[in-house]
Amino acid sequence: MKLDIDKKKKVVYWFWSLYGACLLGVILLFSLISLGWIGYMPSLGELKNPIDRYASQVISADGELLGRFAYRNDNRVYVDYNEISPELVNALIATEDARFMNHSGIDAEALMRAIIKGGILRQKAAGGGSTISQQLAKLLYSPRPGRKLERILQKPIEWVIAVKLERLYTKEEIINIYLNQFDYLYEAIGIKMASQVYFNTTPADLTLEQSATLVGMFKNPSYFNPVIAPGRMEGRRNTVLQQMEKYGYLAKADADSVAKIPLKVNFRRIEQKEGSAPYFREYLRTTMTASKPERKNYAQWQTEDFVRDSIAWETDPLYGWTNKNKKPNGENYNLYADGLKIYTTIDHRMQ
Length: 351
Description:
The protein is mainly alpha-helical. It has 14 helices and three strands. A three-stranded mixed sheet has the order 2-1-3, with helices on one face. A hairpin with a 5-residue loop joins strand 1 and strand 2. Helix 5 (132-141) packs across helix 6. The longest helix is centred in the first third of the chain and has 33 residues, at 2-34.
């Protein structure tokens, strides 16, 4: 009898010892990740300025957009949270992270469901465990994993970054950054460009069905593409509407009514070179990005050009503007990445 009791004590001892060792290992792992000793961890400066590339806009005297300056893969125009349709925000939360307003970056309930149903029971409809904050961490900071160890550590790293993002930003700011960051294909990066490319509208004016369509693309924009697979996209849009109904953002009658509306896009791919006054915009670009003239960069027969440019550098505030002016961090402005708004005297109606 005493032998059985001793065995039970040993089992209990080893069980708690193993549990304690595992818990200590997990704490140590996340501590090392947070310190940046394992995997990639963005600096505080990077976390405070997560998106560093926005297209600059050229605006006419009558308030119309003439065109943009941007890098090819960063054709993104900033839009503020209060300029986004509430329907879009509700659709995003209902579909991607129903408990978004209540967690601190990691949804323990969704995570356990995904592990048990998806990992252990192998159920396809287990649902994802990633929160909006984790998805943002992946969009902003996660490189494509290569080796097996990197793939294993990818999720823990995203969890740590997600928690840090939640400490730095409000829920509204996280949603705003996420919507400004997502790539909707066709150089439509961010919700402002997506609204314009797919529906020829603004984020504030998106209808319920349009909002559900764009949120539906988050799952996989290539697969759920409203341009090349409208039937598939319509089904995904209706799933988003069902999620909104499920979590109380939409009445059943409204969800059913909108689901009957055929998917309709007003697609128009917008390239950076498009816009009014192309010659003027090119002149503006070369003038604003001009470097300080140096005689060695001019041929012998270009003396007049050198003198003219030197005078312009000293007397014309616009000439070489990006190289004359510095941002708060001490770096020069970048015409293609710093989201400048350039107001001109050109009248759009006369172009």
